[in-house]
Specification:
single chain, alpha+beta, 7-stranded mixed sheet, 5-stranded mixed sheet
Length: 503
């Protein structure tokens, strides 16, 4: 059997496992979910042990689906959700059962930003989300809330790096994950001692970054047995999910752009230099491709907002059928306007204190209008991101936009996107598999099966090019100011409400 790569994508909602062949096809895949817990204001936590259970279950399933896979797997690589932080002790064991994930907003910015100007910190790190979301600031909360646990902490790991530790016994990270730590200087390509000093954080707690395709160790006997694989399979360093998805979305050379449409959504540019701007604050990661960066603007709540609306209106309904109901509502949703910042906003959207709004309702507003308003609100939020990231990076406005993720599968939503963005959309055969393709590319490139990471581009075959409808473009141009006014009102409301951030 030809060689296979086991790609594991440790996302917000679950672990996707895929087996990829060297000719760029996914031969088996599955998803095993795990919960996020919200035990208090600003708290968003998951349990690493549940990540591990999902990795085991998903891997065993794809191996069972594929005859001969056990012997054909030549390597393992992970894509992992960003901005979380896992504490482990001297024995490599978890210090705490629960760990904050990316959307946990309890990070304490003081005294760090009393000692380093926030704009200067951003320009060094490219960390453009709200500062409390980054691990550097979350460690301040960990230290304050559980000093005994902090005293036992010997390493701070990203999500996929904790799984790598379970697989290999090795503490390791890569540059892309490290660049989302809050302490990584993009120019230096390493942690910044001045930032670490301001945080009172010892460098020894942070794994030394290495390239994403590097082999960091081999599969130990016990985890190998759990996964149903032979011991000694190489495990590569892997990448943060943003970088893995960019790699799997043809973001392998300078000037490429794509839209990830998922639980959260973003517009991402691949470039040879970080795209930085203190006003709009694109967030930047070192790419999984050496020498490149990925810079993006986003909206936190896209798919999650839609799922929330489905659960409120029609619990248990098929999400595709729920979206399709929007086709019964005209452009503009009969006046209903939805601002989709239910999980807080990016700096471009007003910051983490912003919350979603629904306005313009009347007695004639129907369920389908609410669905369409939600879809249009997400599209307008991403339109702002696309316009800014194109302007900052110098990309022409007529560049086709590759779309990937679960949100790219709906013809109704894609029509809204194409018309609101006034941009032709490209759908390819990779679709929701971009992150696992990126992880698989790390295996094939790192093992020498592929000559370069750019070979991942060959997995894409264009399924559809959806051009904007001129009538739709004109209609949404007329509605854009209304959407912007609602978003501005949400920011004003947030600023008039007492903050619950623990800064």
């Amino acid at each position: 059997m030809e060689p296979l790569a086991l790609a594991l994508d440790l996302g917000t909602g679950g672990c996707k496992a895929s087996l990829w062949s060297a000719d760029g096809h996914a031969v088996a895949e599955t998803v095993v979910s795990y919960p996020t817990r919200h035990p208090g204001p600003g708290r968003a936590e998951q349990r690493p042990d549940e990540w591990w259970d999902a990795v085991v279950s998903a891997t065993r399933e794809v191996v069972a689906q594929t005859p001969g896979a056990r012997e054909a797997v030549i390597g393992i690589a992970l894509s992992g959700q960003s901005l979380g932080v896992v504490q482990v002790d001297a024995a490599g064991e978890l210090v705490a059962r629960d760990t904050p994930i990316w959307s946990d907003t309890r990070g304490r910015t003081r005294p760090i930003l009393d000692r380093i100007d926030e704009d200067e910190w951003y320009l060094r790190t490219g960390n453009g989300f709200g500062a409390p979301l980054y691990p550097l600031f979350k460690t301040q909360t960990m230290r304050a809330e559980d000093p005994e646990g902090w005293a036992r902490t010997r390493a701070l790991l990203g999500s996929k790096d904790w799984i790598t530790l379970r697989l290999t016994g090795e503490i390791a990270t890569d540059h892309s994950m490290a660049s989302g730590s809050g302490a990584y200087d993009l120019t230096l390509g390493d942690y910044d001692d001045a930032i670490l000093d301001a945080a009172g954080l010892d460098r020894s707690l942070l794994p030394t970054p290495r390239e994403s395709a590097d082999v960091v160790g081999t599969l130990l006997p016990a985890p190998a047995e759990a996964l149903g694989l032979p011991a000694d399979v190489p495990v590569h360093a892997g990448a943060v999910d943003n970088a893995a998805m960019a790699l799997g979305s043809r973001g392998t050379t300078d000037g490429r752009i794509y839209a990830a449409l998922g639980s959260s959504s973003w517009m991402t540019v691949t470039s040879s230099a970080p795209v930085l701007d203190v006003e709009t604050r694109p967030y930047v990661f070192r790419h999984a491709v050496p020498g490149l960066y990925i810079s993006a603007l986003s909206t936190f709540s896209s798919g999650t907002t839609l799922t929330w609306l489905r659960d409120v209106m029609r619990p248990g309904a098929d999400i595709g059928a729920f979206i399709d109901g929007a086709a019964a509502s005209p452009r503009g949703a009969r006046g209903a306007v939805f601002v989709p910042t239910l999980a807080g906003g990016t700096p471009l959207e007003g910051g983490s204190g912003v919350r979603g709004t629904l306005t313009g309702l009347e007695l004639g507003t129907g369920a389908d209008d609410l669905v369409r308003a939600c879809l249009e609100g997400i599209a307008f939020a991403l339109d702002r991101s696309l316009r800014h990231i194109r302007a900052l990076s110098g990309l022409p406005a007529d560049t086709d936009l590759l779309i990937s993720g679960g949100g790219s599968r709906s013809p109704v939503w894609n029509r809204i996107y194409a018309d609101v963005l006034d941009t032709a959309l490209l759908r390819t055969t990779v679709d929701q598999q971009a992150a696992t393709l990126g992880a698989a590319a790390l295996v094939f490139s790192g093992s020498g099966v592929w000559s370069s990471l750019a070979a991942a581009d060959d997995a894409h075959e264009v399924v559809e090019r959806l051009a904007p409808d001129p009538d739709g473009v004109r209609a949404y141009d007329a509605l854009r100011d209304r959407s912007s006014a609602a978003a501005d009102a949400a920011v004003l409301f947030a600023r008039s409400t007492p903050s619950q951030e623990n800064a």
